[in-house]
Automatic annotation (TrEMBL):
Pfam families xrefs: FAD-oxidase_C, FAD_binding_4
Organism: Clostridium hominis
Cross-referenced InterPro entries: FAD-bd_oxidored_4_C, FAD-bd_PCMH, FAD-bd_PCMH-like_sf, FAD-bd_PCMH_sub2, FAD-linked_Oxase-like_C, FAD-linked_OxidoTrans_Type4, Oxid_FAD_bind_N, Vanillyl_alc_oxidase_C-sub2
The FAD-binding PCMH-type domain, residue ranges: 34-212
SUPFAM superfamilies noted in UniProt: FAD-binding/transporter-associated domain-like, FAD-linked oxidases, C-terminal domain
Protein name listed in UniProt: FAD-binding protein
Amino acid sequence: MIYNDLVNILKDTDRIISTENINRDYFTDGLKRIYGEADVLVFPVNTEEVSCVLKYAYKSNIKVTPRGSGTGLVGGTVPTERGIILDLSKMNKIINLDKSTFTVEVESGVVLNQLQQYVENEGLFYPPDPGEKTATIGGNISTNAGGMRAVKYGVTRDYVRKLEVVLANGTILNLGGDTIKNSSGLDLKDLFIGSEGTLGVITKAFLKVIPKPKKSISAIIAFDALELGIESVNRIINENINATAIEFMEKKVIENTERYLNLKFPCSSGNSYLLLTFDGETDSEIELNSNKAKEVSAKSGAVDFILLKDKEEINNTWQIRGALVKAVEVISEEEPVDIVVPIDKIVEFIDFTKILEEKYKIQVVSFGHAGDGNIHLCVVRNGIEESLWREKSHKLLKELYCKCYELNGVTSGEHGIGISKKEYFLRNTSNKNIEYMREIKKVFDDKFILNNNKVYIQ
């Protein structure tokens, strides 16, 4: 019945797929571990069609699960209550680049690397740089994705000027403005950034871009112990070295990724590494900062410092960094974690993961964005029997998230909460805060149509 109704509304059978013909990939996310079910999969091509679908769903009390590329890692695109999957991937136009205001207007289905390449060809730069480059802009906004350049340039929220969103009842809202400053009432736009599709469906975004840096180099700093590398990060930041990215990785996860990609990491010294990027307008500017980083890291116990200037070598190195999670996933089931703690608490938190690793006899691989405290962990199954894995990994994760909040951290830095982190988020977040989140949900979606049973919704 839902299929026939939507065909009558949209007048197009090619973009409406009934449940028995839906590819199972649309029932899950990037991890392909949690699966749901749906009655219909719909591919709208413009905002008006999104509005029509939502008006119908609202009137008929049908649940709707929005999705983009489906690259998420926490079950945010899994349809838990059947209904309609609203796939926005065909809304993928870059509509306008305005160089006079440094803004670009895009539909929400535009893929991140498509946008980055487009603006860079025009001499501009879109800084947010999460590891998954095939994610859509709508998905990046819905999770407030950060990525590797956040330490210098900030996160997705810092680049969203305006949004077009469609509410659960089909109402189209335009939020934000063209101006840099805005102190004119509540900024509703910011509510939708990071809301994981629970308040409305993002259909268009007006994003800030900046002039493209003319020069860029990267550096690898090797340490015998991960703790020494992490401890050096505060010194690097305090020296005002202005690194674009400061990543940390352990040798064992790099070696695994080298095999996965058939690429060679340029450094074999030490047991852990910091990977830094410096960008700017001149060679002298970025070399000055890289030299400062070399001096500071030497005082922190670095055993090697390698400056990468060759473009292919830089690209290969960052490709290795970007594939760390996928490489672990290939050899074993793993639970990805993206906890954030204050920068000065990173070492304490990493030390705690080692205690839990020994306590539960489960491997925990560490890497992440050292410059902003965003710690990525892979809790690795390594052949543990299914029921025992579920029991032990659940206990380990409960302790991890409790420790995170004890250190004044938060559950997620950029993956979002979705389904898989919901228990830990609700357990460690004040009841009053959750109550207000749910009240805000009711204002925008009083029938709880959109992406229900996710984040803060029970």
